[in-house]
Amino acid sequence: MIILTHSKFETIFLVLNLLLCHFASAQWDKILTHDAFPEHKIKLKEPHLCDKTVQQPSYIGYSYGGDDVSDTLTAALDVYVFLQIFFREFHHYAKLDFHLAGESFAGQWLPTIAFDINKYNYNHDAIRNFIHINLESILIGNGLMDPLVQFKYYPDMACNSSYGPVLNHSTCNQLRKDCKQLIKLVKKYYNSKNAIDCMNVINFCQDKMYQPYEMAGKNLRDIRKSCNSSVSCYPELLNIVKYSNRQDVKTELGINSSFVFYTKNLTVHYNFIYSGSWIIPIDIYISSLLKNNIRVLIYAGDADYGSNWLGVDAWTKVFRWSGTKGFNEANITPWITASGNYSGEFRTFKGFTFLRIFEAGHYVPHDQPVSTKTIAEIMRKHLLEVENKEEIVGIMNDDKKMSKINNKDLPIAYHDEIL
Ligand SMILES: *[C@@H]1O[C@H](CO)[C@@H](O)[C@H](O)[C@H]1NC(C)=O
Ligand SMILES: *[C@@H]1O[C@H](CO)[C@@H](O)[C@H](O)[C@H]1NC(C)=O
Ligand SMILES: *[C@@H]1O[C@H](CO)[C@@H](O)[C@H](O)[C@H]1NC(C)=O
Ligand SMILES: *[C@@H]1O[C@H](CO)[C@@H](O)[C@H](O)[C@H]1NC(C)=O
Ligand SMILES: *[C@@H]1O[C@H](CO)[C@@H](O)[C@H](O)[C@H]1NC(C)=O
Ligand SMILES: *[C@@H]1O[C@H](CO)[C@@H](O)[C@H](O)[C@H]1NC(C)=O
Fold first, then answer.
1. Signal peptide location in the record (predicted)?
2. Pick the CATH number of 280-418 from 3.30.300.30, 3.40.50.1820, 3.40.50.2000, 3.30.30.10
3. pLDDT digit string, tens, across residues 75-121
């Protein structure tokens, strides 16, 4: 069961780009259900506060449920069911264009949620009282798409990024050596899909890539800053927890007063790792979205260390889809924001875009508050980029024969074949 709430937070954060506020027809404390998914329910209370987030998976934030979710594909299906139930109740929203945005681990779950939406849009016989969701695009910020590609870039980010080195020579040398070992561990995990190998990757990465960096007093989420715990780096995170646990806030949102809000749940975290499906081969999900003309924006604040832009950029270049070559040949173009600032650079081809954002760490909207509109600007760019460019639209129309997804495209098949 997912409860609509209204905060965003550290590790697990997903924005469904819906206006969940002002739904006039909502009733108080209503339980929404769907014939096709009898095991799922949404408890609804109309908040006066404007809410645009869903907390996922269960047991994160205000979310809870009967079954523990321990893998990305199951979590994606839960969100899909949530959307079906939601749109069934608020069908006027179902007419709108639908975009999914998220950051960090969203590199794993946004593509899978989008994949499910797209899949059922073409296979709706499977669902009674199905509602078509007008999925237009996904946006992923500083995402974790493929550690095998991305983890290679910790040494470059710490030791020779455009912000200059933040570790000394000997630490950098060690980092480069250890990183080679880390990549071997990732390969081992990819081959075995084994929980122990997965754990080894995470522990080794923590010990050898994060710890030396944190020992130097640097912010994992922003190479420009010195501070090395999430609370000292982002003290406002504490306020999210305090606010979300306030009795009046819970009452307002219809949350059981005995419920305690946490931004993360380590049991859930470890369950994902133990399932061995911490990382799934996301390229196939993303390429299938692009094949169906669903646009994909990958963006990255270029001061993040943990999910750094060098690794994200490298992934966009090796990402396997029909446009790999065209994307690599496309020019890098300055990103000029509405205020006229040269705020980043992007590369785009056939609906797939990579945008580097200058002077922002992992939390792009937090770091670029001058334009509180950063995300809106990114969206605008993302939307206009494709719609205003005739040649791109032309190409997209050629592909318009929306290839139906067939059984061999189902996630499980991918899952077994690739990892
Ligand atoms: C950092 O240095 C390495 C080794 O000299 C080089 O291969 C890499 O391209 C450099 N990276 C950046 C971002 O300048
Ligand atoms: C480099 O940094 C590490 C960790 O901060 C420190 O232990 C070491 O003494 C430094 N080495 C040099 C040569 O400054
Ligand atoms: C945090 O940084 C300080 C230096 O600013 C260092 O002494 C300390 O060991 C670091 N703490 C952790 C947990 O890495
Ligand atoms: C609130 O949660 C408590 C503890 O889980 C439970 O006993 C109680 O029935 C819940 N109250 C409501 C109104 O759901
Ligand atoms: C964490 O998640 C588990 C389910 O995996 C749940 O049983 C537990 O109550 C959650 N812990 C907290 C503190 O919410
Ligand atoms: C544009 O850049 C100038 C100069 O760096 C800066 O002062 C201003 O705040 C920026 N405006 C926005 C909207 O980012």
1. 1-26
2. 3.40.50.1820
3. 898 889 889 988 888 888 888 888 888 899 999 989 999 999 999 99
Q: Cα(159) to centroid of ligand 1, in Å? A: 8
Amino acid residing at 302: D
Most confident of 62-71, 202-211, 403-412: 202-211
Query: Structure pTM?
Result: 0.81
Model pLDDT, residue 264: 80
Strands 333-336 and 218-219: unpaired
Nearest CA, atom 4, ligand 2: 216
Give the per-residue pLDDT at 160: 93
Under DSSP, the state recorded for 56 is -
Of 346, 349, 352, 348, which is closest to residue 290 (Cα–Cα)?
352
Among 7, 63, 70, 104, the active-site one is: 104
Nearest Cα residue to atom 8 of ligand 1: 156
CA distance 230 to 390: 45
**104 given a catalytic annotation:** yes
Return the CATH fold of 151-231: Helix Hairpins (1.10.287)
Q: How far is CA 180 from the centre of its chain?
A: 27
Q: Where do the domains of the chain lie?
A: 151-231, 280-418
Model pLDDT for residues 112-146, shown as the tens digit of each residue: 999 999 999 998 887 888 999 999 889 999 999 99
- Measured from the Cα of 341, ligand 6's closest atom is 1
* Residue 218: Cβ within 10 Å count: 22
